[in-house]
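Bug #77: duplicate submission created two jobs. Keeping one. Sequence:
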Amino acid sequence: MIIVLKRGATKEQINHILKKIESLGLRHMVSKGVERTIIGVIGEEDILRVQPLEVYPGVEKVMPVLAPYKLVSREFKQEDSVIDIKGIKIGGKKIVVIAGPCAVEEKELLISIAKKVKAAGATILRGGAFKPRTSPYSFQGLGKEGLEYLKAAKEETGLAILTEVMDTRDVELVAEYADIIQIGARNMQNFNLLKEVGKCQKPVLLKRGLAATLTELFMSAEYILSSGNEEVILCERGIRTFEDATRNTVDISAIGLVEELSHLPIIVDPSHATGRRSLIAPISKAAVAAGADGLLIEVHTHPEEALSDGAQSLLPKDFERLMKELGRIAEAVGRSI
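Kept job's structure:
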């Protein structure tokens, strides 16, 4: 349910409505737009349907949200959400590029890669300290030691940090180091983990599951928002289809649909989407042309020696060339890199 307030609704009127919602055993989230303030009500809507909320001072109208995802929908918030990470705005005019190795391996190697991706134009460093792997015998990440290396790279370069959390027990630890907490595709429907990062006041990058519909992605984001964290970034990283020429199939249409149905920003991960270095550039270009708010690209100085996903990592020189090419495409669609 959405309560749309009149222009000029006072703080006292808003607080009066919020207290009424709380007294009914429901939760609320306030969204202040350019022209209107909207209150999203979370809980059983049948309770509200018998309440004459329209007569409360400051209320213009009360509307049900038809989509199963409430807080994520455009119905709840018309304006685009812009996630601000230390001055880096995801969802604004500038397309944000996040780059770095799949996994954190060595401190000096990470710092070296961080310097190169920053020089090429990236503003956020990616790197997995905890790695979910298909095989239990594959490299699983360095854990806290990897987080320390990420911190060192941040101090050396000034780049913001994105890294993944896999376990509810590690959320507090990862939040100490990360500027953005990533929820990987395998954990998109780990609802306890979603609720835990929802309590954490750090931006969350939520990857689309291996075979998840957009509605399922939105519902997972709803878990985070309904737990109190409004700073969610969606990530299209390819879904499984019958095609086996690539690791996954990139759903370019998802970019436009997310922008149509939700106010949350969306970025694209061409590395995990394709699993092939040769396809990173064309998919990145397509994503920018389609309206993506950012890209998540794997870069490694020695991909043949990488402990994780070297085959889908760009060399720094190739990443630098791609950034220049993306700049021209971004300009053509009224944006910048």
